[in-house]
Structure formats: structure tokens, C-alpha cells
Protein: ABC-2 type transport system ATP-binding protein
Organism: Catenuloplanes atrovinosus
Amino acid sequence: MPRVLSRMTPRRWIAGTAALAVLAGLTGWAVWPEDPGFTFHDEVITVASGPSGTEPVALDTRYFVPDGASESAPVPALLLAHGFGGDMHSVHAQAEDLARAGYAVMTWTARGFGKSGGQIHLNSQDHEVRDAQRLLDRLAARPEVRRDAPGDPRVGAVGGSYGGALALLLAARDSRVDAIVPMITWNDLGRAFLPDAAGGPVVDGVFKKAWAGTFFSSGAGPPGPDTDPACGRFAADVCAAFLAIATTGRATPETVAVLDRSSPARVLDRIKAPTLLIQGLADTLFPLSEADANARGIAANGHGTPVRVAWYAGGHDGGPGPRTDQDRVEELTDEWLDHYVAGEGGAPPDSFTYSRVAGFDALDRGLVTNAYSIADYPGLTAEPAVSVGVTGPPQRIANPPGGNPAALSSLPGAGSALSSVLGTALSDLPGQHASYVSDPLTAALDVGGSPRVRLRAASPTGEAVLFVKLYDVDPDGGATLSEGLIAPVRLTGLPATIDAARPVTVTLPAVVRRVDEGHRLRVVVATSDQAFAGPDTPAVYTVAVEPQVSLPILTGTPMAGPGAIWRWVLAGLLAAIALGLAAVLLVARARHRRIDRSVAAEHADTPLVVSGLRKEYADGFVAVSTVDFTVRRGQVVGLLGPNGAGKTTTLRVLMGLTQPTRGEIRIFGHRLTPGSPVLSRVGALVEGPGFLPHLTGEENLRAYWRATGRPWEDARFEEALEIAGLGDSVHRRTRKYSHGMRQRLAIAQAMLGLPELLVLDEPTDGLDPPQIAEMRRVLRRYATDGRAVLVSSHLLAEVEQTCTHAVVVNKGTIVASGPVEEIVGDSPTVHLDVDDPVAARAALDGLGGVRFLQEAENGGLIVDLNGTPRREVVASLVRAGVGVDRVAPRRRLEDAFLALVGENSRGSGDR
């Protein structure tokens, strides 16, 4: 009968109208264009620059004005500079955020890039820095920009990498800059591209050819009609310096002088603008040492300039870093600019902050970091330091001719990612490296700063270029080179023998890393690396590492990240909702079902008795109609049925994962209820194995058992491992397990404590034939000493060979149960194993009614007896001189199963 609509009362009409109004408002809010909070316009402007200050250059600019800014309501301004190879579009999103925060933001494409004119001079004082000064002049002339004095805008400078160096150089040259935030930038450009971890002069540094080549290629073209195709848009002196160093792999005083012009290190004594230095941990181009040198130089210049340092888990190799770190860096920047440029808020603390990777986000699998703070900036050689011993004899290593083949520790822009993928596959080539390893650590170490090692070297040429690396080696032998960072060293004046060599201190790139207990440290000294230029002449060096590695320890105070308050509020709301739901469930359960704690004496020694089980869902779907069966000690019982027959639902009810509509389950006489103590006598694998990938199999099992709250001595750990047959694989991390090993580990977990009843859902799922055969033996071994096994499987042949009993379910109802051989039953078809199939067929042809069907795979015969007794068939064969090895029924469990459920049978959609 059709449903009659309820009468529309005034109260319902008002409620419906209000609901529609709210819905319309929400819809409009969702689709209405959001006011960006600013406007911007693009303009190509010409500024006077160059050494004389009169040379014109066209700059492509973009200017953002926040809403409400005017001559009567002026706002502070920012210069936002892009990185090398980028343009003003590269920083558009950051400019939008700053404009929304109330700043007038000027972005532009630096000379030599994009649509701007001029040549690339690498932030020289006479060119790129003077260009920025002219932009300051334009900001000072804008009516909506706040001014400290005529011609002096209230302005800060922000930039990353190339733009970060510009911010430092501009602040040193122009006192109108009120605050700067340089990010992932350099201190000494010569030292950055020609490093020497032993402290040698820049002119003798080891050329960082991979990064230099990347820089040069990103600025080399397209050349104009009047430019040198070898140099593209680089200025002639910059191009010549690069070509000279790239050709020989060595610098000269002249080439170093070109790089000095672009180095903030030479002008730090002039910087008075409060400076926030943000540097990335994942940076093989400009590592933490560059920010450290900038911080120390500004702090020592005598002006009392506020300086703050922050490290984050990004950089030229790590990109913007994890979202948690991006939020922290943005908050630090906003706080710094708001106080020192906008004049709002209290003075930011000068504490040092840093982050350490803590794991992966459960939603997007991205990295998550924890942030820490320390009152005073500790630098790169923080105290206290811990010495860790490494051992190994002096070793001979070869420098390859022409530097090829060379080890691969990092690639520009992919240092940390590459090192995590390659491990030591390509980073340490045979014959080209020496290795020195520590004992396992007895306690975890929070390393923060530059580790130091001392080494000795001997060379037949008196000189050697070496690359020193520090690996974190886990108990499985997996080695991690933090962020792909290595320390290049050029040693000169070396003796020919190691006995005469004097020790040299090597300062490795700074890292922030927790080295866990049980891990080892490995110091590697190599002769080649594709990221650097080494000597082409083949030679054999001898190296020795002194037995102590010094590790700076960084212990900060944990910080609440941006948005932490909202996360706590959200957590509180979720907790309140969860408590409310729990209360509702508890009340409903108390009202509808009384817990039965009685013990049925007749079943006290029976592992499992299922009686009248029914499971019906709220929508009327019946997953299990009527199920009754028993599992006794010593039995391996197979639960069979087509897809949707109700097998999984039965097991879920059995394990307390869902409640039955009717019926009961008793385990050793106890009525099964959620949380019932009798469940401690049951081990189960129902929903599939789930393990923590960073733990070994043994660690996963131990963690599982600890969660049960039961004494460790009750786990019977070794017995469970022996039955499951895991062997030494239990000591490997589970992320390296095959599917079959994970299944066996899951079986071992279910077997912990050797429960008297083992319940398994598809234990052979995904296993190959040898693994299935082994699982068959495992289950048979387990069902001894009075234990029992209930296994659900769709592999009928496996059930036939493994199980003593079977329960066949179809459409939620049991259609057969009992010993497997009874369900299979007798068969008119037999399999004959004979020694002479041809003679056997001739003899059988003489027997009336016996019909040959086919040859078996092993050469035997399959025949239909058609009522003829088996003994008569065997006697006839023997009289004919045919040897009979075996007579077996041909009928299989599969035949019986299909006869019971039908070949086209489908279940009701088991849930």
C-alpha cells in the first residue's frame, strides 16, 4: 500500500523553511567567490643600475596591495626575492599570504631571468643589489606604503637561496631595510662550491661540480643574438670563472675573487637589520654550516643586531619540508616581520629552534616532524658531545682513472631521497672505500650538529681527495646516509706510508638525527663521488680512521606546533563524542542483553560449541540463518562454503567482532561475550595480518603479547615460533617480509601462548604451493596435545589434505558436517596404480561392466567399477600378472562439495 504523506502543520512548515534557508546560505557560502584580500598588478619597469648607477635594466615586477591600504591608512612593505632559475611567479603564493597579512609586497624577476633584461652577476653589489635598492625607492614613493622618513619605506626583505643572499647583501648596503628573513642561502659562495671539511683554503677546496653544473645550466640560456652561446645570460666574468673551475676542477685566486663579490660573509659586519636565518636539514647545496657562519658573523659585528636561527626538515634537497615544518617556519616568519617591520606584537624570542622527523602521517603517509627549542643557539659543535668508538685497520683504496666509475651519494635536488632509496648500492664502490664500524649503541643518541672524525692518509703522489661519510646502520644491516650529506677533503703534503701520516680532523656536515639503541655507526672514507670533481690520475691511497667519532648531542624542549590548540580542541570534541557513544552502547547493551557467566558442565572440555547461531542486520539482510557445529580436542575442522555462505560472519561472531541476533557460542563451556576471560584460551587470525613495518617479526610479537597484559613466561614464545617455522626470519623487519612470511608471522602471533583453540580465516591466502604445504604441516602439528583448530578456506583440496573434519555452509545454513572421509563418501570410480597399464586394460576389458575412463597423470588408470567389487577387480589383475600398487576412491571433497551446494551456488553476500 502506498505510504500516506504526513499533514503539513505550521510547526513543520516553519522548521522546513528554516532548514532550507540554512542550506541555501551554506550553499551560497561554498560557491561564492572568496575575496582574496588584496589586488596586484604587473609592470615592466626600467631602473638605473650598474657600477655607475646609470645603466638601465628592465625588471619584470608584480606588486601586491592589501585591501584597505591607502595614503590615509599606509601599510608596511616587503621585498620578496625568488631563487636561482626562478622568476616572480615562483613566489606568487607566498606573496599572496603576506599581502593577506597586511603587507604591500613587491616581487620581481631578477636580472638575467625570465622577462627581465640584463645579465646574471650572482647578486653583485653593483647589479642585483643595486636593482633591489631602486625597488626600495619605488616603494618609498608609493602613497599606501608606510614611511619612517622621506624616501625611507617601512620595509623588510625576504627570500630563499638566491633571494636569501640578496636579502643579506641588501641589508648590509642599505640601512632602510628594517628586518630580513634569509632562507636556505649561503654565507661564502666560494666555500659553498669548493668545500673542504678539513678546513683548507677555498682555493684548494673540492669542486661541487654537480650543483655548479645545475646552476650554470639553469641560467645559461637562451642566449641573445649578441651573447656568447657558452655563457648564455651570465656576465662574462662569472661565466669565465665557472668554465675555468669546471675545466680543471680547481679554483684560482682570481676565480675565488669573483665568488667573493657575491658572498654575504664579506659584509656581515654592516648588517643592523634584525635577522631570522632559516636553514634546511635536507640540503647538499647550502648545508647548515652556511647559516651558522651567517649567524656568528652578524652576532659578532658589534651592532647588537637581533639574530635568530631555525632549522627545518627541508632545503634544496627536501623541498618545503613536511607540512608540520612549513607551518612552523611560516609562524616564525610572520612573528618576526610583524614585530620588526609592522611594529606589532612583542619581541620574538631569540631562542634556537629545530625539528626532527618523527614518523609518517597516518592519512597521507607524508613525513611528520617534532619541533624543539633551546634558549641559546648552540652552533654546530654543540656540547655535550659523545664519543663513539669505531674499529678497523688501515686500508688501501683506489682512486679510479679519470674519476670514473664514481660513487653516487646524492644528486642535486634529491640528496635525502636518493640516499634512502639507494642505501649503499652505489654510494660505496668496491675497492674505492674503507669502512670503520662501531659496536651496537647501548642507548639512543639525539645527534644535532657536525660529527667529527680524525683520519690519517698516505699517498704516493703526496695528495689525495677523500670523501668522508657517516652512516646509521640498523640491526638488519640497512645503512642510512643522513640527507645524502658527505664531507669532501683535499689533503696535501702526504707521506708515502701510513705510519708517517699525521691525523687530520674532519668536520662532517651537520645533521639532526636520532640514532636508536642497537644501531651501529659506520664511518666510510671513499675516493670518488659523482657530485664532486676529484683527481683524474689513478692512485692507491692508504687511510686510517682514529677510533673515536665525536657526536654533538642536541637536547631541546619540545614545542607545540602551530594549530596545536585547535588539535587539542578537536581531540577533546572527539573524546567527548566517543565517550557519549560508549555510554549509549553500554546502556543499550545492559538493557538488551544480560551477561551469562554460567558454565555448561557438559561442554567444559569442548573447545567450541556453536548452537542455533543467527546473524541478521538492521536492513533485514540475513548473513547466517542457522548454524550448529562442534569442534573437539585433536580436531582440525574446515569451515567450507561458497562466497557469501556466511563463513566470515560466523568467525566474526566467534571472535566477538560482531554480535549474533540469536543463538550462542560456548568456549570450554563458557558462554562467549565480548571481553570474556575465556578468550585468552583462543588464538585467532580473522581480519588479516597487520604489523608495524619498522619492527622485526620478534618485536611485533612481543609488542602484541605485552598488549594482552599477560606474563611473558606464559607466551611460550619459542614453541610458537618452532611450530610456525619462521626460523631466523623473525629477526628481520616486517617491511621486508614476503606475503607468505607475513601470513606465517600472523599464525605465530595467533599461536602465542599455545591457545587451546586456534581460529584461522584463509591462512593460506596468497601463499605459493610450497608455503601452502608447509602451512598444512603447521596446522597438523598444532592440533596435538589436545588442542583444536577451526580453519575457514575456499581451497577444498587443502581442506581435504589438512582437516580431520569439515562443516559445509551454504546460504547461511549447514548442509553437511562430520569427518572428511564421511562427507566424501564411497565412489564407483577408482584410481588404480599398476605397473603395466596396457596389460591392465586388456585384463579389465574381460570383466563385464567395468569401464575404462582415462589414464591418470602418473601412468595409472581411472575406471568405473559399475558395481563390480574392488577385490574382484584386483584379483583379475593379479591373475593377469599385473602388479597393483594402490586402489583409491576417485571421488574428492570437491565432488562432494559441489553435490551439496550445487555448481552454480552463490551465497547471500556475506558481510
Notes: Residues 1-15, 17-23, 562-566, 906-911 have pLDDT under 50 and may be disordered. The chain has 22 helices and 40 strands. The radius of gyration is 39 Å. The CA atoms of residues 77 and 104 lie 4 Å apart.
